[in-house]
Amino acid sequence: MEMMHHAVSWFEIPTTDFDRARKFYSTIFDYVMPEMTFGPVRMGFLLHDRDAGGIGGAIVYNAEHYTPHADGVKLYLNGGRDLGVVLDRVPGAGGEVMIPKRMISPDMGYMAMFTDSEGNVLALHSKE
Q1: Could you read off the pLDDT of 51-104 as tens digits, one per residue?
Q2: Least confident of 7-11, 20-24, 33-37, 76-80
């Protein structure tokens, strides 16, 4: 098996109400989420530095192929320098904090988990 530099190359977060989900992520990350439509698929993009090799992802609406589920794969989104800033916005944006910010270890940093506006359970990670 070839050793990969990153374990993730892209991710997609399913939505049932795209506009609600776009507002949620725009609110917690404090930016206006860019969006595009590809046939029946509507996507909103999370910010990342693609030109510098950053890994990106999107919220996605397609009723035929995407269904939010709390027991699916757990994805850790980059919470920036201190994930507490993003996590503090979750309740006001329509989500729920499931696991408050806590240290993984001094070397690994911090994590937290939340439910988004669509019922997906995601995590945040930061070094501080």
Answers
A1: 998 999 999 999 999 999 888 878 999 999 999 999 999 999 999 999 999 999
A2: 7-11
Neighbours of 29 (CB within 10 A): 18
Task: Name the CATH architecture for the domain at 10-126.
Answer: Roll (3.10)
Would you state the structure tokens that stand for residue 40, as one six-digit string?
């029946």
User: Taking the model in full, what pTM does it have?
Assistant: 0.85
Can you read off the two tokens belonging to residue 59? 């919220």
